[in-house]
Design goal:
339 residues, mainly alpha, two-stranded antiparallel sheet
Length: 339
């Protein structure tokens, strides 16, 4: 274990620093380019309440800042190439949606194609007692939830990027323990890129991730999470992957419940997002982002602990996360969003 740490840590730190510096450099360039070509998010008096149009293309800055160190520090394997190819397709999907507008159906079809390519490269959920076809179906479900979960929480300056940074850092711990070089480097490269981007995305944001970035974050992190080995010490350890991504998964389940109850399409826009309910309650944007990142960090930390304790003890850990999320859901549901 010590040898693995010593061999991974210096170069992984270099990848993190490279991504951080590249994001600092790339983000203003893409911000200015988006303004020049009119690729901006304009206020509409509804969900988009910013005072002035805000440039998109932050996702391209993050993607570029991740791609460079990954190509430098990692050897290209079938799995890495498959994940990068599929992620690139998702980035292009988001870019087209940011420039124009795509229907939810088209976006879903392209996401399914990207997941299929990722599975062809060898990245899929593998559970010994389940038939391969069911594992493939679970892979599609997981990837679609993750991809759209991060897209759904991207409704506030710094929120999706902040939560994704916490999730990437937590997932890197899993990979460090396992000596998974590819996972460590991509997670830390992503965390570095996001930290550099967040300098320009903090309230009031100078640039947005856009669908380009939020879809990319969810897809890349979802694909990486599949490669983790969670059940080495605890057969219930797979629940740690859910704990690490508790915030975006909570968002998609919470929104789905509220919208289905009202007979509204799940992917339709509304003010049901947990972050907007926190804002309506009494928190500022900065406080909402901070509390969401703290919630993500606490859930991930509990999940990491639970992965390394006996199964019966881990149930208390995972159960505490579920209980807290249910309490928060009932509380947020009571917030009056009609005014």
């Amino acid at each position: 274990m010590g040898g693995e740490w010593r061999s991974l840590a210096p170069s992984a730190g270099a990848a993190f620093a490279t991504s951080l510096l590249l994001a600092f450099y790339f983000t203003p360039i893409f911000r200015d380019s988006a303004r020049r070509f009119g690729i901006v998010d304009r206020p509409d008096g509804g969900l988009k309440t910013q005072k002035e149009p805000v440039p998109y293309l932050g996702g391209l800055a993050v993607f570029s800042a991740v791609l460079f160190p990954v190509s430098i520090f990692l050897r290209f394997s079938d799995e890495l190439m498959g994940l990068l190819l599929a992620s690139t397709i998702v980035v292009m999907l988001g870019l087209i949606d940011d420039i124009g507008r795509l229907s939810p159906r088209i976006k879903l079809v392209v996401q399914v194609v990207a997941v299929f390519l990722m599975i062809k490269s060898g990245i899929r959920i593998r559970v010994g007692f389940l038939p391969p076809l069911l594992c493939i179906a679970l892979t599609f479900l997981w990837m679609l939830l993750m991809t759209n979960g991060f897209n759904l929480i991207d409704v506030m300056d710094g929120l999706a990027g902040g939560v994704a940074t916490v999730s990437a850092a937590a997932l890197s711990v899993v990979f460090f323990v396992q000596g998974n070089r590819m996972g460590v480097f991509i997670c830390l490269s992503l965390a570095g890129a996001l930290l550099g981007f967040l300098h320009y995305n903090r309230p009031p944001a100078q640039i947005y991730l856009g669908d380009t970035g939020s879809l990319f974050l969810g897809f890349l992190l979802g694909g990486l999470a599949i490669g983790g080995q969670y059940t080495t010490r605890n057969p219930l350890g797979w629940l740690t992957a859910i704990a690490i991504f508790a915030v975006p998964l909570f968002e998609i389940l919470f929104l789905s419940y509220l919208r289905i109850r009202r007979g509204v399409p799940i992917m339709a826009g509304s003010r049901d997002h947990f972050s907007l309910r926190l804002r309506k309650w009494r928190l500022t944007t900065g406080q909402t982002v901070f509390s969401s990142c703290v919630a993500a960090a606490v859930s991930a930390a509990i999940g990491l602990i639970a992965m390394n304790v006996p199964a019966d003890s881990s149930l208390y850990c995972y159960g505490s996360i579920l209980l807290l999320l249910l309490i928060v859901a009932f509380w947020l549901k009571a917030v009056d969003m009609s005014l």
